[in-house]
Amino acid sequence: MDKVTTGKVIAMISALAPGADPAVIESAVQDWLDDHPEATTTVQDGSITLAKLASDVASEINKISSLSDEIAPYTADDYYKSLMELKGNTASVGNECSFTAWDARYSIIPMQYARHDIAMSTSGNLQIVLYTTNSQNVITADSGWKTSITIPAGTYFHVTMRRSNNANLTESDLDGLTITEDGFTLSDTAYLNDNPNVNIIAHKGFSAVAPENTIPAFKLAREKGFRFVETDVRFTYDGVPVLLHDATINRTARNADGTDISSTIAIADITYEDALEYDFGIWKGSEYSGTKIPTLQEFVVCCKRLGLHPYIEVRNDVAYTDEQYATMCGIVKNCGMKNNASWISHGRVKLEAILAIIPTARVGLLVDTLSQNLINIAVALQTDDNDVFLLTDYSTITSDNIQYAKSAGMPVEVWTVDTYAALLNLDPYCSGVETNGIMIGEIYKNNV
């Protein structure tokens, strides 16, 4: 009996597939062994032999050489990058954009996707179609309504976005394409909260449904078509910036078993590792069980990948240190988002601290009501290099006090609008609206 080890298999495959990427070989072998734990002990007579396993995996790896340079081994990261290229390069692809990949893992993998025909214009429909190989390695279409598909290892798959009448694609055609490492969805709801004239902002994510200030809430906001999301930043005891509205975790966190936390716990008094012991999702429903508190880094990366513009609240009740300001700004800058993020705070000094590090930052002064004095403070934050706006409680706006902002040319955005009546009664001067969970774009569309 041969004992199967990763090292033995890799060595044999390397000989059978000269020139293959060692990382690809190791990943393929390890995934196979993970799926066949019995093989890690012995290979019995009559079952797969070590040589047969090596030959099978090598055969799959050798297929790479017969494909074009566009084809790459599948990883979650590669798949995500390929889709981002698909989304970002439509201007130059004419009537179709697509990519091809190969799953190099010797296992069965799930890929979440959906296909939806959308009536984009009278000239035709926008479509996404997945093509996969059958047992004879012939590419066949796999389209129609699906929530997931299972692709065996070694399968080639090809994703195409096109119009059914072969009309050229435009960048706006892809606005409804939501991309994550798990796959993609194309949804007609994705247009409803995207308005170039009004920033429609999901307050703490789509928090009417999903747990506030968590990655699921921001992903759901994007699925609902939002392009702007708001969050709050606090620091743990060991200096990790995390997303949390309250000073304590008790309202939005539970013990790992779902029970209430008996003692009051301030996020500033526990380490990040301590915070990870708590469940920040189950209070909104069992489907969110296991959700962890996100870091600012995770949030900004999420925004970058999903095409979201973050509104980052610098909390007025937190005495941030110079190092903490530098940490927050550094994360945004290092993710390439310094010119695609807004910073908001009740504190003028806090916004000045942000501008000292990122002079071009877009900043919003949070005010309980519009007044000439507060407008003057906002005006003083303006330079030739940045944008400044006011963000206020919608219920405090009057025809008189908004005139102060109009006269100063100061943009006004509002929080937190959650009813049809409140939305439709807003002064049209307002250029941004926060909501916990109403479909503002749809309401606007239906009330013109």
Structure write-up:
This protein is of the alpha/beta class. It folds into 3 domains: 6-66, no CATH class; 72-174, no CATH class; 199-445, TIM Barrel (Alpha-Beta Barrel), CATH 3.20.20.190. It contains 13 helices and 19 strands. An 8-stranded parallel β-barrel has the order 11-12-14-15-16-17-18-19. The radius of gyration is 26 Å and the shape is globular. The relative contact order is 0.08.
What's a concise summary of this model?
By secondary structure, the chain is of the alpha/beta class.
Q: What's the alpha carbon Rg, rounded to whole Å?
A: 26 Å
Please tally the helical runs, counting DSSP H or I stretches of 4 or more residues. Answer: 13
- Strand % is 15-25%
Strand order of the largest sheet: 11-12-14-15-16-17-18-19
Q: How many strands in all?
A: 19
Estimated structural class: alpha/beta
List the helices and strands and how they pair.
Elements: H1 6-16, H2 22-35, H3 50-62, E1 72-73, H4 76-88, E2 96-102, E3 108-113, E4 118-121, E5 124-133, E6 139-142, E7 148-152, E8 156-163, E9 177-180, E10 183-186, E11 199-203, H5 215-223, E12 228-235, E13 241-243, H6 272-275, H7 296-306, E14 309-314, H8 322-334, E15 342-345, H9 348-357, E16 362-367, H10 372-381, E17 388-393, H11 401-408, E18 412-415, H12 420-424, E19 432-435, H13 440-445
Parallel strand pairs: 1-2, 3-10, 11-12, 11-19, 12-14, 14-15, 15-16, 16-17, 17-18, 18-19
Antiparallel strand pairs: 2-8, 3-7, 4-5, 5-6, 5-8, 9-10, 12-13
